[in-house]
Protein backbone atom coordinates (compact mmCIF):
# COMPACT_ATOMS: atom_id res chain seq x y z
CA UNK A 1 0.00 0.00 0.00
CA UNK A 2 1.27 3.47 -0.89
CA UNK A 3 1.04 5.70 2.19
CA UNK A 4 -0.51 9.12 2.28
CA UNK A 5 1.73 12.15 2.72
CA UNK A 6 1.87 14.86 5.38
CA UNK A 7 4.19 17.85 5.09
CA UNK A 8 4.66 19.48 8.48
CA UNK A 9 5.89 22.87 9.59
CA UNK A 10 4.49 25.20 6.95
CA UNK A 11 5.19 28.84 7.82
CA UNK A 12 4.98 30.95 4.64
CA UNK A 13 2.53 31.52 1.77
CA UNK A 14 5.21 30.73 -0.81
CA UNK A 15 5.49 27.19 0.60
CA UNK A 16 1.86 26.45 -0.22
CA UNK A 17 2.27 26.20 -4.01
CA UNK A 18 4.22 22.94 -3.91
CA UNK A 19 1.67 21.38 -1.56
CA UNK A 20 -1.17 22.27 -3.93
CA UNK A 21 0.73 21.27 -7.08
CA UNK A 22 1.75 17.89 -5.64
CA UNK A 23 -1.65 17.32 -3.98
CA UNK A 24 -0.27 16.21 -0.63
CA UNK A 25 -2.83 14.73 1.74
CA UNK A 26 -2.11 16.58 4.98
CA UNK A 27 -0.40 19.80 6.04
CA UNK A 28 0.84 20.38 9.58
CA UNK A 29 0.91 23.75 11.33
CA UNK A 30 3.14 23.80 14.42
CA UNK A 31 1.92 25.62 17.52
CA UNK A 32 4.55 24.07 19.81
CA UNK A 33 8.02 25.44 20.56
CA UNK A 34 9.96 25.05 17.32
CA UNK A 35 11.68 27.12 14.66
CA UNK A 36 8.57 26.33 12.60
CA UNK A 37 6.12 27.65 15.21
CA UNK A 38 3.43 30.02 13.97
CA UNK A 39 0.30 31.57 15.45
CA UNK A 40 -3.16 30.11 15.03
CA UNK A 41 -4.19 33.29 13.23
CA UNK A 42 -1.39 32.92 10.68
CA UNK A 43 -2.18 29.25 10.15
CA UNK A 44 -5.80 30.10 9.39
CA UNK A 45 -4.64 32.61 6.76
CA UNK A 46 -2.30 30.02 5.21
CA UNK A 47 -5.06 27.42 5.24
CA UNK A 48 -7.16 29.63 2.95
CA UNK A 49 -4.46 29.22 0.27
CA UNK A 50 -4.59 25.41 0.36
CA UNK A 51 -6.59 23.24 -1.98
CA UNK A 52 -9.79 22.16 -0.24
CA UNK A 53 -8.87 18.47 -0.47
CA UNK A 54 -5.79 18.91 1.74
CA UNK A 55 -6.52 18.24 5.41
CA UNK A 56 -4.98 20.47 8.07
CA UNK A 57 -3.26 19.24 11.23
CA UNK A 58 -2.69 21.42 14.32
CA UNK A 59 0.47 20.27 16.10
CA UNK A 60 0.53 20.80 19.89
CA UNK A 61 2.91 19.85 22.69
CA UNK A 62 1.81 20.25 26.32
CA UNK A 63 -0.37 23.22 25.30
CA UNK A 64 -2.12 25.73 27.52
CA UNK A 65 -5.89 25.48 27.81
CA UNK A 66 -6.23 28.75 25.90
CA UNK A 67 -4.20 27.40 22.98
CA UNK A 68 -6.24 24.21 22.82
CA UNK A 69 -9.45 26.25 22.71
CA UNK A 70 -8.06 28.50 19.95
CA UNK A 71 -7.16 25.42 17.92
CA UNK A 72 -10.60 23.89 18.46
CA UNK A 73 -12.24 27.16 17.43
CA UNK A 74 -9.94 27.32 14.39
CA UNK A 75 -11.57 24.13 13.10
CA UNK A 76 -8.46 22.31 11.95
CA UNK A 77 -9.26 18.83 10.66
CA UNK A 78 -6.97 16.96 13.05
CA UNK A 79 -5.22 17.77 16.33
CA UNK A 80 -1.79 16.18 16.73
CA UNK A 81 -1.00 16.16 20.45
CA UNK A 82 2.45 15.47 21.89
CA UNK A 83 2.56 14.94 25.65
CA UNK A 84 -0.09 13.74 28.06
CA UNK A 85 -3.62 14.44 26.80
CA UNK A 86 -5.85 15.47 29.73
CA UNK A 87 -9.10 13.55 29.99
CA UNK A 88 -11.10 16.79 29.88
CA UNK A 89 -9.79 17.49 26.38
CA UNK A 90 -10.29 13.94 25.18
CA UNK A 91 -13.93 14.40 26.14
CA UNK A 92 -14.35 17.88 24.64
CA UNK A 93 -12.41 17.76 21.37
CA UNK A 94 -14.66 16.92 18.43
CA UNK A 95 -11.84 16.72 15.88
CA UNK A 96 -9.92 13.51 15.34
CA UNK A 97 -6.75 13.32 17.42
CA UNK A 98 -3.34 11.96 16.48
CA UNK A 99 -1.28 11.09 19.54
CA UNK A 100 2.43 11.87 19.28
CA UNK A 101 4.65 9.10 20.66
CA UNK A 102 8.44 9.30 20.99
CA UNK A 103 9.93 5.90 20.21
CA UNK A 104 13.09 5.09 22.16
CA UNK A 105 12.67 1.32 22.60
CA UNK A 106 10.02 -1.41 22.59
CA UNK A 107 8.47 -0.10 25.81
CA UNK A 108 7.67 3.20 24.08
CA UNK A 109 5.00 1.43 22.03
CA UNK A 110 2.99 0.98 25.24
CA UNK A 111 2.37 4.74 25.30
CA UNK A 112 -0.09 4.36 22.43
CA UNK A 113 -3.29 4.81 24.42
CA UNK A 114 -6.64 3.66 23.15
CA UNK A 115 -9.48 6.18 22.93
CA UNK A 116 -12.28 6.62 20.41
CA UNK A 117 -11.08 10.15 19.57
CA UNK A 118 -7.52 8.98 18.90
CA UNK A 119 -7.47 7.73 15.33
CA UNK A 120 -3.73 7.78 14.66
CA UNK A 121 -0.31 7.68 16.29
CA UNK A 122 2.53 9.92 15.12
CA UNK A 123 5.65 7.89 15.83
CA UNK A 124 8.84 9.95 16.01
CA UNK A 125 12.26 9.72 17.59
CA UNK A 126 13.28 10.72 21.10
CA UNK A 127 13.38 14.41 20.13
CA UNK A 128 10.52 15.15 17.69
CA UNK A 129 11.48 17.73 15.10
CA UNK A 130 15.19 16.89 15.29
CA UNK A 131 15.22 15.29 11.85
CA UNK A 132 16.66 12.05 13.23
CA UNK A 133 14.97 8.70 12.50
CA UNK A 134 14.39 6.01 15.10
CA UNK A 135 14.70 2.24 14.66
CA UNK A 136 11.79 1.41 12.34
CA UNK A 137 12.32 -2.31 12.98
CA UNK A 138 10.59 -1.80 16.35
CA UNK A 139 7.29 -1.29 14.56
CA UNK A 140 7.24 -4.78 13.08
CA UNK A 141 5.77 -6.11 16.33
CA UNK A 142 2.63 -3.94 16.04
CA UNK A 143 -0.52 -5.89 15.20
CA UNK A 144 -1.53 -3.24 12.67
CA UNK A 145 0.06 -0.27 10.98
CA UNK A 146 -3.24 1.11 9.65
CA UNK A 147 -3.22 3.96 12.16
CA UNK A 148 0.51 4.75 12.08
CA UNK A 149 1.90 8.10 10.95
CA UNK A 150 5.66 7.68 10.57
CA UNK A 151 7.76 10.77 11.33
CA UNK A 152 11.35 11.55 12.20
CA UNK A 153 14.18 12.04 9.75
CA UNK A 154 12.32 11.06 6.60
CA UNK A 155 13.61 12.31 3.24
CA UNK A 156 13.61 11.27 -0.41
CA UNK A 157 16.66 9.06 0.14
CA UNK A 158 15.29 6.90 2.97
CA UNK A 159 11.51 6.95 2.57
CA UNK A 160 11.50 3.77 0.44
CA UNK A 161 13.22 1.87 3.24
CA UNK A 162 10.92 3.42 5.83
CA UNK A 163 7.80 2.31 3.96
CA UNK A 164 9.16 -1.18 3.35
CA UNK A 165 10.11 -1.62 7.01
CA UNK A 166 7.29 0.08 8.91
CA UNK A 167 4.32 -0.05 6.47
CA UNK A 168 2.87 3.24 7.74
CA UNK A 169 -0.52 4.60 6.74
CA UNK A 170 0.99 8.09 6.45
CA UNK A 171 4.55 9.39 6.09
CA UNK A 172 5.23 12.71 7.81
CA UNK A 173 8.09 14.89 6.53
CA UNK A 174 9.43 18.26 7.64
CA UNK A 175 13.18 18.93 7.68
CA UNK A 176 13.65 16.35 4.91
CA UNK A 177 12.05 18.74 2.41
CA UNK A 178 13.76 21.92 3.61
CA UNK A 179 16.70 23.99 2.49
CA UNK A 180 18.19 27.11 4.08
CA UNK A 181 15.11 29.16 3.19
CA UNK A 182 12.48 26.77 4.52
CA UNK A 183 10.38 24.29 2.57
CA UNK A 184 11.82 23.59 -0.90
CA UNK A 185 9.49 23.17 -3.89
CA UNK A 186 11.91 20.75 -5.55
CA UNK A 187 12.48 18.68 -2.40
CA UNK A 188 8.75 18.39 -1.79
CA UNK A 189 8.21 17.33 -5.40
CA UNK A 190 10.99 14.73 -5.21
CA UNK A 191 9.73 13.33 -1.90
CA UNK A 192 6.13 13.06 -3.07
CA UNK A 193 7.10 11.36 -6.32
CA UNK A 194 9.32 8.91 -4.43
CA UNK A 195 6.45 7.93 -2.14
CA UNK A 196 3.85 7.64 -4.88
CA UNK A 197 6.15 5.58 -7.07
CA UNK A 198 6.98 3.21 -4.22
CA UNK A 199 7.31 -0.38 -5.38
CA UNK A 200 6.69 0.48 -9.04
UniProtKB/TrEMBL annotation:
User: One GO biological process from the UniProt record?
Assistant: L-tryptophan biosynthetic process
What the entry lists under CDD domains is as follows: PRAI
Q: Which Pfam families match?
A: PRAI
Give the enzyme's main class according to its UniProt record, as a single word.
isomerase
Q: Does the keyword Transmembrane helix apply?
A: no
The pathway this protein participates in, as annotated, is: Amino-acid biosynthesis; L-tryptophan biosynthesis; L-tryptophan from chorismate: step 3/5
GO terms, molecular function: phosphoribosylanthranilate isomerase activity
Record-annotated N-(5'phosphoribosyl) anthranilate isomerase (PRAI) domain positions: 6-193
Which reaction equation describes what this protein catalyses?
A: N-(5-phospho-beta-D-ribosyl)anthranilate = 1-(2-carboxyphenylamino)-1-deoxy-D-ribulose 5-phosphate
Any idea which UniProt keywords this protein has?
Answer: Amino-acid biosynthesis, Aromatic amino acid biosynthesis, Isomerase, Tryptophan biosynthesis
Per the UniProt entry, the Enzyme Commission number(s) are 5.3.1.24
Q: Which family does it belong to?
A: Belongs to the TrpF family.
Q: Which PANTHER family match?
A: N-(5'-PHOSPHORIBOSYL)ANTHRANILATE ISOMERASE (PTHR42894:SF1)
Q: What is this protein called?
A: N-(5'-phosphoribosyl)anthranilate isomerase
Q: Which organism is it from?
A: Natranaerovirga hydrolytica
Report the gene name.
trpF
